């Protein structure tokens, strides 16, 4: 169907007040347009009314295309008929995003109250079963709505959606079974609940990271195969070398030999595994030394190098694909925003209509400045080449050039004089060195206080964090904050990350002094005073590079943290199903791990607390898995459960180690890649070039703007921000994120990618891929071109209807 027929059969009841921040949530869609009116208009008034409605729907669909390009969503899920739009709009709004996220988190949290669980959190089966069924029903409604605009044929191509559907079906059946039986059963499928969380709108970065993990798997699996080959070879050799020694329990069978060598890969059992044979002959050490040198120091590092190279290539290829995907989205949107009279240029009216849906938080002034920034030729319209930069233009934050004038220039004269003095003082080139001197002196004072520590913790804490010198330095740091705020202004002061850090630490230190003076037993606040010393690391360039890399890595680290939590949740649920309920106290008599599980009612030995490492609930199971991640003595846990449950339980612990090794190897590779990227960027870009890259200057003439802004009400709203009859200059600032830096780093490659894309577009256009002449119908009034259904390639035809 035509986009102009989207609302012919369904009236959308959502208003701008309902969803003010989402595409398709403005009141311009709350009108019922019949299919007949789309074809034939009886009078000039009706014609104008209908044309405005068509434009509004084109703005809406164009904004949807841009959002799909930004989120890297496939265009085959784009709504293309009247039944599709209501469901699409209902699911794609911030309220439903929040509901979807909350439902997913509730499903995950059910593991805390389901059997096995702590008595404090445990809920009856009927309660948590009903909550689970309700949450699954909400997710089922979302999938049903998604089917309305995607269809079964298309959804079969979406592996993630198919997996979600199958998982939902299985869990729904199990939830009903639990409610009917009023008791739980062996449910490892609970470990699949994170699928619903990962599929939410807010976890796009997590999905991209998981995708990178899968893309990096081939080289990892290749190297892992090589590792296991050497482990097997050495296990076989170790079995024939040491199995005849009755004192050596590490190589008694071929199975024990393989497990011992696998654990030795993590060095957790070294040198214990070597000592029985080492006592027989010192030459046996060659076996273990050669194994560790080959497997640990060569192959493991080689695997990291291979993963790093693969990750770097994937990162570059991901940037290229996203850039080209955004370009294709701009093409789709541009077709909906031009007229037949001028099919190669977009007017400001259409650009402003697009921004109402795509960037509703942008002010009219920002929209005008974005249009001016995009218009490289200075004309009253945009070409497709200029429109390609719309994503970059939206990220710009605009300030008037005169906004750099100190904030106090219009205040009371004495206050203005004082603020001017503080401004000159805090911008003095030696002011920062004075602050660094104070911080260093504070550090020396802390060292002296540490040397005075005694056995009384409260007295030591008061001496360290609430003594006269602490109050003195906190007072001086408060004065520094006040001077900077008065001299620079609140906006400029909090525009610096280091200033925000100084303000936070100073405020916390002040609270720490007060809290410790009122409640001396609250000794934990002693950690607040040393935090200010971190500022000293800014002096050295190497540390600045490290901090800069951490900033670039922040989104990736957040995604990594979520992936690790998902991994822990997955294995914790399986561990609870397999190992919950086993009493590990005094469990391993006459074994190599017996001492670690010795328990006495009068108190265990130093080693005898390992029985606490169990899977009796989600909390303890997660802690146990973290201990396995650290790999220190992880084989003790593995061997104990192998003795109590089954020797095959070792597979669970080994698989967990392999999974965490894969994820952490990719994390290390990503950190190395980010650090290399930043160092390379710094070498290729000077400070001046970086400032030019991050800032854009636009001169906006009132007379020029009147030529392309035809809306009188909009002009009136712009009078307060512009110079009527003159020229106003604005500075646009880009965020200093990885994507902006990548555009700088890959500028040569980007030119080549764009040339290849242009050539592909020309070939498609020449073969008729861009338009179907047999299906073209044009609205004569205002010559509006409306978007239609997508082809298999993702290109939209251009449709319209004639007017009598």
From TrEMBL:
Gene Ontology MF annotations: monoatomic ion channel activity; voltage-gated channel activity
Transmembrane segments: 220-242, 254-271, 283-308, 433-451, 471-495, 507-528, 549-576, 624-645, 651-675
Keywords attached to this entry: Membrane, Transmembrane, Transmembrane helix
Broad class of where this protein is predominantly found: membrane
InterPro entries reported for this sequence: Ion_trans_dom, TPC1_animal, Volt_channel_dom_sf
Gene3D superfamilies recorded: 1.10.287.70, Voltage-gated potassium channels. Chain C
Subcellular location: Membrane
UniProt membrane topology term: Multi-pass membrane protein
Residue ranges annotated for the Ion transport domain, each copy included: 104-317, 428-675
Keyword rRNA-binding attached: no
GO CC annotations, alphabetized: endosome membrane; lysosomal membrane
The protein's name: Two pore calcium channel protein 1
Species assigned in the record: Cryptotermes secundus
